[in-house]
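Deliverable D5.2: sample structural annotation.
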Amino acid sequence: MLDKAGLPTPQNLAFLKTLNHPNFVPEVNAAGLEINSPVFDINKNTLRNIQHSFESLWGFCRKQAQANDCDLLMSGILPSATDAHITEAFRTQKTRYDDIEHAFLSQDKEHAFHLDIKGKEQLKKTIPSLAINGLTGSFQMHMRIPATSYVRHYNTSMAIAGPVLACATNSPFLLGKQLWEETRIASFEQMMTLHHPFGEFKCANFGEGYLESSWLEQFSANYYNYPRLLRASNSAQTDCYAHTKHQNSVTFRWSRAVLDGASDELPHLRIEFRPLPAGPSLVDMVANAAFYVGLMQHYSNNNHDFTQFLSFENARNNFYCAAKHGLDATLLWPGKGATPVKQIIIDELLPAANNGLTALGFNEEDVAYYLDIIEKRTSSGVNGSAWQRAFMSNPKVCFTDLSKALCKHQESGMPVHTWPQGA
């Protein structure tokens, strides 16, 4: 939520009360909102249905914000945020966030949060509050997966995370510094690291390894390897998975297993894919979803076992290389060795995604439209982070100008590679 000056305004709880809509909930920063879409079945119109749903929810929310002298921005990180916007005064006053912040500050040997991120510049400072996490925005996708094929799907998600993220980076700036192409990854991981006297616990990370034989491995790791950040749940009477979900909700792998289902339903499993940033535009986000879903379908259902061709260490290194360098990254890829990610996407991944989406029965015109956005973005090298860097290369502009420009171009509904370059 932005004010007229392009700065975050801490009004989320009051605004949500005005909205009175179940799909909108607060984020940890008092200027942040989370928008939840409905569930989509797989059919030929799925992609356009997602687009229409996003446009409806976003349009409704933005119209209400503008009626309250605010505006809304989708971004991996809000570029105009300053030190004034990461204090306790900007943290949403909700019990969940109280508990998580208290758990970190009471158990951490230094009783403080720290960031030390090195990119083109370096950001090294003590952070007073978890409010900074709510200045980052992500586009989180949930895919419901049968238990019988969960291991294969989950490992595919980890293997493709690097190139999918490289194409979509949208967070080059934090607190006035140019850092990683997707700085959100580094910021969130460092903020969610507990420096305990007898060990360091990274509550946000890429994962411990590929799954070997069961989805239960991840929940077992949650129990044995991660600290308790929330008080015990009291909802076990109404939700037979309450305690499992309680701990899983504060274990932030970038591909996270989710077990869900009310007590009167059969349980189901999902993969929550968390690396992608919000923005730059709604159509860019739908294109990112199409790219990921197509790759998941193609590789997970064609007897392609990434664990035999791409080590977990290389998959993890690819992920962080993509977060640092975006479309300029060079990744280690099966059968290719060290290869520019643009070449991997154009030569292999786009045809694979097309095959996967076609196999799912998606409308051919929709598939061509959204994958063409990925192709054009990759070929031009202009994703969200590249566009923001080009804008800020003009010495006459500031970060509030960037936030306002992002709002303006998002309103056009056009993908970022078509936006005018520079200020």
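Annotation notes: The chain has a mean pLDDT of 92. The first strand starts at residue 24 and ends at 26.
The annotation will be released with the project's public dataset once the embargo ends.
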